[in-house]
Every structure is written in C-alpha cells, then in structure tokens.
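Action item from last meeting closed. Structure (465 res):
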C-alpha cells in the first residue's frame, strides 16, 4: 500500500477507508480506552492525530511510541471530532518502527535556538526548523523558476578556483600538500607549483568571474551554489560557507541590474507567501510578530534608491551618535545600513555608486566623478532587520580601465588573463549581483541568526556535523 503524507491526509477532500502513514511521534496522550498520537512526517508543519484503541492487539506496544519514535499506522481517515483539525486517523494496525531513547532531547517544552544548534542533527524535527527548511527548499526551487522563466541559463561555476574574485583575501586554501612536510622552493617558501593543481588554489568566494564568461556567450545566466569566506566575523549575518545566487546579464547597466534585483527579491517573497503560507504564519506567531506585515509592505512599494554620497549626507545629518564614524570614502557599517533602511527610508533601499577604493576591482568606474572622489557602479540592497542582502555592480567592460583598476587594487594581471580576454573579444556592457541565500531566508522567515537558516552552519570555530 502506498504511503500517504500527512500533508495530503490533512488536505483530503473526503474520508478514506484506509491509508498508510509513516512518521515520528510528537506527543502521545493516553486515556483509558485509547491513546492519541500526534504524528508528524515533516511534509508540513501540522501533525495528524492518530487514535489507537486499547482493544487493538497492537496496543500492547503503545508505550514504545514515545516522543521521537518512528511509527507506521494503517487506518481510516475520518472527520475529527476534536477542535482545530479536520481529519484524524483511527488506527487499525499500529507498528513502532524505532523507539526513541528516553534521552531524546526534543521534548515538548520549548528549547533555545542555541541549544538546538548543538543538536543540528535533530533540530529539523522541531516545528521551527521543519518550517525553515521547507521554506529554504521552496525558495531554492523558486530561484530556478524565476530565472528559467526569464530565459536565463544556469551555469555551474567551479568551487575550486585560483582567483580571488572579491580581492578581499578571505580565502580558504585547497591543497593536497603534506602540511608537516611541504615542498619548498629556492627561497624556502612552500612551493605550490608542486601542489595538486600546480598553483595555489582556494574555495571560491563567488562564481561571478566565471559567470561573466558565460554571460558574454549565452547573454543571461545565473549561478546558484555554495561560496566560502574565511572572514573571522562573529555576527548573526556571516557564515564561512553560504549559498549565493548570482545572475549575470550582458547588455545591461547598473539601473537594469537594480531593477532585476528588486523584481527578483519581490518574486521570492511572493512565492514564499503563496507556497509556504502555513510556515510563514508560524514564524509570524512565534518568531517575529511583524513579519507578515513587513513582507506585504515590502511587496507593495518600490524600493528606494540613493547614491552612496547621498547616504553619507543622510547619515551625517541624522544627528545620531555612531559607533563607527561616518566619512566619505569609508565603508558603510551595519549600524549605518540599518539606519538607512529601518529608520530613514523605512523600506528596502539600494545604495549605489560607492567609492572605488572600498569596492572590488571589476566594478565599472563611474564617468565624470571628481578625481579625488572616484566612484564605481556598485549597488548594495539593504533591507530592514538585516542590512545588505545583495551586492552587485556594472562590470568594467573597457580593457584599459579594467587593467588600471587591477593596478589600483594591486592585482596581478597575469592571473586574470582570461578575464581580460573577455574585454578583448566582443566586450559588452554587463552587470550582475549576488544575493546571499541565507540572508534572504532570514528576511522571509524573520529568523534572526544565519546559523538557523542553514542546515549545518560553518562559522569560526564550528564545523560539527
Ligand atoms: O557583496 P558580495 O561580496 O558580492 C559578491 O560576491 C559579488 N561577486 C556578487 C556579484 O556581483 N555577482 O556578496 C554578495 C552577497 C551579500 O550581499 C550577502 O548577502 C552575501 O552575499 N554574503 C554573505 N552571506 C553570508 N555570510 C557571509 N560571510 C557573506 N558574505 C556575503
Ligand atoms: Mg557586499
């Protein structure tokens, strides 16, 4: 007999003579003549109530069906007499497949998120994490739907790379050398020419540079994969391993890029609202009361846009006492970003045209800036509660300018020969961005820590599981 998922049983349009359910016991309540079991199989937030009659021969095993045990139930789906549920199952056959030890840590009482992180192998069985990871799955699917429907091609960019796309130096090294006895060159330094790839290699920080190769061939492309940064950031928004979605569009400028980012973010929010309604409702009840109102608010309005220079003016005139002082030329800190989106604009805001020195080498130099205040066509999308969720730019498509940018950022042209070739052979204006998938999930679920929207968080000092 095929299995029925709890989700489908709960959505049944009529009673059913016999169905087979498999799942885990959330709770069991024993009355005199029968027991109630709340069965959850992860297919949706809600469980299905199962009634096991004490007269049933299998009832002898009922005490083994403790919280966390896996069970199989064959029975009748009938209209429920209890409140809050439409259907329940009257068991005819009841089997405990795997008992749960009395040490099963997920008991009925609520647990702190910190504690649940320590049991990341069990937390998907909790209401909160079940909901988070269902939304994560759905939104990953929606990413592909969005781009595929728009005619973008999906490119698998490499995980192992020899180039530092962001030029920030936060790279994890990939090596097959023996750390206790690496080969040395004439100067006594480790000789990476003898390493597996014949050069220094790293885990990628971004698929962008390789995406540009494909955008200048297939026009509209995107990557969606894991990226790695060895930043020693102990914040609720940084992970050492995270997933990034990076579209790259040929024949597109910064404005087209900002439009795409806005449309894409709104699409994902709408998709989650439509396909994960029960899970979002759960978040708005137990995680963030403002969540649904905020998502609606974001959907209804155009995002605001302001240049970096205007942003600095707003911050300077705000009268706020900043922990990190504001000065033209400095990076915006989290407190500044959050002020702009949460207090000043009270809405998502895209800040564009940043000082050249604080952005990556590949960004297009803006025409007509004063020499001492040169900016590049960069954009960051900032949202309430989080700050930056998207970073993007129009790319420098002019060969000479790009070379000059590499010199400016102290990069070795030779290592980027193929990247420069794209500017030699049919160069076109092009632009793209990266959306941090976990930050987007934080925004959609209201969950405040990045460690709680990724199945297994990789952060400084933590790589269990
Ligand atoms: O702003 P970033 O560094 O941009 C890039 O990597 C570009 N190459 C993207 C592109 O234009 N194709 O990163 C993009 C986004 C950030 O806005 C943020 O949402 C996320 O990636 N991100 C992180 N998320 C979690 N943990 C980290 N350590 C992150 N670093 C960046
Ligand atoms: Mg950024």
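Sequence:
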């Amino acid at each position: 007999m095929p299995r029925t998922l709890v989700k489908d049983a709960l959505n049944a349009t009529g009673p059913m003579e016999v169905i087979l359910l498999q799942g885990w016991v959330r709770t069991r309540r024993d009355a005199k003549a029968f027991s109630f079991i709340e069965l959850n199989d992860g297919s949706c937030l809600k469980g299905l109530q199962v009634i096991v009659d004490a007269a049933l021969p299998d009832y002898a095993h009922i005490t083994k069906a403790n919280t966390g045990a896996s069970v199989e139930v064959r029975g009748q789906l009938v209209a429920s007499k209890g409140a809050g549920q439409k259907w329940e199952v009257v068991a005819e056959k009841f089997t405990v497949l795997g008992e749960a030890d009395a040490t099963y840590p997920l008991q009925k009482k609520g647990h702190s998120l910190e504690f649940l992180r320590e049991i990341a192998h069990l937390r998907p069985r909790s209401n909160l994490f079940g909901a988070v990871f269902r939304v994560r799955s759905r939104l990953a699917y929606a990413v592909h739907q969005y781009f595929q429907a728009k005619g973008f091609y999906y490119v698998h960019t490499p995980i192992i790379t020899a180039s530092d796309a962001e030029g920030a130096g936060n790279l994890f090294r990939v090596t097959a050398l023996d750390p206790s006895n690496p080969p040395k060159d004439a100067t006594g330094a480790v000789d990476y020419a003898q390493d597996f790839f014949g050069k220094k290699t790293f885990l990628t920080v971004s698929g962008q540079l390789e995406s540009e190769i494909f955008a200048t061939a297939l026009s509209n492309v995107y990557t969606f994969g894991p990226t790695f940064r060895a930043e020693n950031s102990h914040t609720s928004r940084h992970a050492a391993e995270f997933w990034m979605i990076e579209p790259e569009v040929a024949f597109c400028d910064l404005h087209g890029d900002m439009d795409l980012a806005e449309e894409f973010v709104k699409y994902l929010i709408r998709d989650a609202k439509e396909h994960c309604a029960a899970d979002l409702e759960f978040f708005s009840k137990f995680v963030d009361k403002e969540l649904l109102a905020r998502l609606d608010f974001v959907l209804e309005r155009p995002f605001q846009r302001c240049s970096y220079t205007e942003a600095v003016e707003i911050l300077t005139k705000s009268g706020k006492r900043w922990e990190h002082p504001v000065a033209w030329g400095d990076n915006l800190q989290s407190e500044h970003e959050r002020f702009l989106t949460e207090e000043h604009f009270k809405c998502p805001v895209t800040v564009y045209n940043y000082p050249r020195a604080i952005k990556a080498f590949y960004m297009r130099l803006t025409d007509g800036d004063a020499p001492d205040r040169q900016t590049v066509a960069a954009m960051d999308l900032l949202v309430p509660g989080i700050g930056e969720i998207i970073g993007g730019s129009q790319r420098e498509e002019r060969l000479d300018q790009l070379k000059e940018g590499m010199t400016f950022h102290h990069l070795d042209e030779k290592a980027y020969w193929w990247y420069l070739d794209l500017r030699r052979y049919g160069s076109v204006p092009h632009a793209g961005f990266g959306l941090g998938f976990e930050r987007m999930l934080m925004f959609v679920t209201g969950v405040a820590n990045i460690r709680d929207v990724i199945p297994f968080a990789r952060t400084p000092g933590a790589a269990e599981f």
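Note appended to the action item: The chain is about 30% helix and 25% strand.
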